Amino acid sequence: MRQTSAGKAFKDALHIETPLQIIGAINANHALLAQKAGYKAIYLSGGGVSAGSLGLPDLGISQLEDVLIDARRITDVCDLPLLVDIDTGFGSSAFNIARTIRSLEKVGVAAVHMEDQVGAKRCGHRPNKELVTTSEMVDRIKAAVDARTDPDFIVMARTDAIASEGLDAAIERSQRYVEGGADMIFAEAVTNLVDFAKFKAATKVPVLANITEFGKTPIFTLEELRSVGVDIALYPLSAFRAMNKAADNVYRTIRAQGTQQTLIEQMQTREELYASINYHAFEQKLDSMFKKD
User: Fold this and answer.
1) Rounded distance, CA 74 to CA 72, Å?
2) Phi-psi region at 204: left, alpha or beta (left = phi > 0; alpha = psi -120 to 50)
3) What is the mean pLDDT of each run of 10 residues along the chain (293 residues)?
4) More exposed terminus of the chain, fewer Cβ within 10 Å: N or C?
5) In sequence order, what are the beta bridge partners of 184?
6) What gap in Å lies between CA 42 and CA 23, rounded to an integer?
7) CA 49 – CA 25 distance, rounded (Å)
């Protein structure tokens, strides 16, 4: 069991490795696999909740309760600090944002990031994103910061301004967001390393690089990100994309061949699954209970 708060555990992880690698976990089972692989923090993507849990696109359709369900399931079994995508805060008022923060704190989330898009948001690497004013985003941040009960709970501000307003405007927005109380900056759709360095120098807070596949940002290595002072390297949906590709292949192969014989080597074994979810410890407990009876 974790002895410190989730937010403090996240901050501690930042000191353990630089950049801190945060891997996306689409469900509780994947969170356990990430922990076993040695990650110090994990991530719940809003796009992952939309596509993975709801089968819908990431267009502001999912709501707080959808994210809470998945977050709670992860924190129930995995004590790695969890960063959660809350889109624009799940509501149009400060009261909605405050409720979002309090609800996520209660289920053991360590950090959130909130973006400066309008309510009808889009994926950060898609065209035609529309932004709220800087002042409105600052108000969102203030509402989130004021709502937290744990001072170590992290409120990260994401800016999507590069695509529509340019780099300088995105940096200026980020500076205002930090002045408004944001603990960290998520600079979305950055296309080169030098720009990350500019965000870091201007804001003087930890900066996250979103190393998502098939997006605007190149697949920079840890060494490259470290060279410009990036603090967090996020891989939001890498396992999810691989899982989907594998599932599609399994479904098609069994349908076409009438057997899964050619797929066995690609599968996680029963024992590997049992090791991941600690199955045998539960079974031994059950056996001891029956023995007492």
Assistant:
1) 5
2) left
3) 85 97 98 98 97 93 96 98 97 94 98 88 76 96 98 97 95 98 97 97 98 96 98 98 97 98 96 93 87 70
4) N
5) 156
6) 5
7) 10
User: 3-state DSSP call for residue 109?
Assistant: coil
pTM for the model? 0.94
DSSP-derived pairing of the beta strands 111-115 and 82-85: parallel
Which residues, in sequence order, are CB contacts of 74 under 8 Å at separation 6+? 25, 27, 28, 31, 42, 44, 82
What does the angle CA 41 – CA 44 – CA 48 come to, to the nearest 5 degrees?
Answer: 145
Distance CA 153, CA 155 (A): 7
Residues annotated as catalytic (active site), given as ranges:
43, 58, 85, 87, 113, 115, 123, 158, 188, 210
Q: At what angle do helices 28-37 and 270-277 cross, to 10 degrees?
A: 90
Q: How far apart are CA 156 and CA 11, in angstroms?
A: 12
Within 10 angstroms of residue 17's Cβ, the number of other Cβ atoms is 16
Six token digits for residue 260: 């899964």
For residue 127, what pLDDT is reported?
75
- The amino acid at residue 174 is S
| CA distance linking residue 111 with residue 123, whole number of Å | 20
Separation between Cα atoms, residue 140 and residue 58, nearest integer Å: 20
pLDDT tens track for 87-144: 999 998 999 999 999 999 999 999 999 999 886 677 767 776 889 999 999 999 999 9
E strand or H helix that includes residue 37: helix 28-37
